[in-house]
Amino acid sequence: MEKSDIESKFCKDCKRTHPISEFHRNSRSRDGYAFYCKSCANLRQEASRRRRGTNPRKRPSQAIPAGMKWCPDCAEIKQVTEFPTAGRRRKVHTYCRTCHNKRGRESKQRLYGGSREYHLRRRYGIGVADFERMLAEQGGVCAICGRAAPEHVDHDHVSGGVRGILCFNCNGGLGHFRDDVEHLAKAISYLRGTTPWVEISPGVYRSNSRTPAVRRSRII
């Protein structure tokens, strides 16, 4: 049966069969609809809010003007532009940007112990303890230049594997060179000055031989 042909569905909570219009959409379920009817889903949501210690939702009694939206957390009616959007269809979130960000911080603290742990695990697959261990193995300094207290995780952009802890400049430098060993080798030769500078136009120089480099100043 196609999803569009479904006319009714059984709710697992109230043990009753309702018209399909009584169920929220859920793209992750097999039939495209939520497991629970709207009434039971609302009860579940309110119970969850009570467990978390948040205030129950009380929709405003007045009509919400066009271009405005009500935020359940701060219970304020705000401009739609104050609500974040997501997805290709730019769907507007339920909570205003301030409350949305607050919820995000609380979730990261509750689930990961902080935003730093969340960021490391989400992007690199390591935690703060792993970061500190790797940094200690490097002697507490950048793995390239030796600068103290580096804060950036360097990883292989192909495999995703973590390679070490670098300072901002070294990590950015590898990124700009696209982790290309040949480009880095050429940059080393360039900096060592294996060729002299020749003025090809006023104030512009280029190298063109194999002798030690000596930059010639422009004569005015």
Brief summary of the model shown:
The protein is built from 6 helices and 12 strands.
Description:
- One of its GO terms (molecular function) is endonuclease activity.
- Pfam families: Endonuclease_7.
- This is Recombination endonuclease VII.
- Keywords: Endonuclease, Hydrolase, Nuclease.
- The structure is a single chain.
- This protein is α+β, with helices and mostly antiparallel strands and about 220 residues long.
- It has 3 domains: about 5-50, 2-Layer Sandwich (Wheat Germ Agglutinin (Isolectin 2), domain 1); about 70-110, no CATH class; about 115-180, 3-Layer(aba) Sandwich (His-Me finger endonuclease fold), CATH 3.40.1800.
- It has 6 helices and 12 strands.
- The protein has helices spanning about 40-50, 95-110, 115-125, 130-135, 170-175, 180-190; strands at about 10, 15-20, 25, 35, 70, 75-80, 85, 90, 150-155, 160-165, 195-200, 205.
- The protein has a two-stranded antiparallel sheet. A two-stranded antiparallel ribbon has the order 3-4. Strands 5-6 form a two-stranded antiparallel ribbon.
- Strand 3 and strand 4 (about 35) form a beta hairpin.
- It starts with 7 loop residues before the first strand and ends in a 13-residue tail after the last strand.
Structure characteristics:
Wheat Germ Agglutinin (Isolectin 2), domain 1; alpha+beta; 6 helices; His-Me finger endonuclease fold; 220 residues; 33% helix
